[in-house]
Amino acid sequence: MIVYGVALLSVCLVLGMLFGEALGVLLNVEANVGGVGIAMLFLVFASNSDKFKALTEGVSGTGIKFWSAMYIPIVVAMAARQNVAAATEGGLLALSAGVAAVIVSFALVPVFSKLGKDDSPAPDTSEEQEAG
């Protein structure tokens, strides 16, 4: 049921926006700092969590998989609309926050790739290819 996917997306979006607003207050910036990106991370973690395993199996999992797949293009479209020139005019804080976010993202790629790595050997497909 797609309703479960929408509900999970809504909860993740609200939590992400709250965290983004709180981060803006902590940084003394009058803006939501990364709320949509934080919401996307919440959605990725929640949809892969064992606590939501019952929601992600069967027919109800279709909604969560649909919205998980749709959320990334939505975030990209929202980010494309942002005015980069206005952000750079915002001063050194906006520029350093952007550079720091890119550096942290690059640094976390190996960490996330190790988390998803399966240590079991890959199945041998050479017999299947010879038979086909």
Number of helices: 7
Percent of residues in beta strands?
A: under 5%
Distance from N terminus to C terminus (CA atoms, Å) equals 38 Å
Number of strands: 0
Q: State the secondary-structure class.
A: mainly alpha
Could you say how many structural domains there are in total?
2
Largest sheet descriptor: none
Topology:
Blueprint: H1 2-26, H2 35-47, H3 53-56, H4 60-80, H5 84-89, H6 92-115, H7 126-131
Helix pairs in contact: 1-2, 1-4, 2-4
Describe, in short, the structure shown.
75% of the residues lie in helices and 0% in strands. With 132 residues, the chain is an all-alpha fold.
Q: Mind explaining what this structure looks like?
A:
The chain has 132 residues and is an all-alpha fold. It has 2 domains: 1-82, no CATH class; 83-117. Helix content is 75%, strand content 0%. It has helices at residues 2-26, 35-47, 53-56, 60-80, 84-89, 92-115, 126-131. Helix 2 packs antiparallel against helix 4 (60-80). The longest helix has 25 residues, at 2-26. The chain is globular, with a radius of gyration of 19 Å. The mean pLDDT is 76.
Defining key terms:
132 residues; mainly alpha; 7 helices; globular
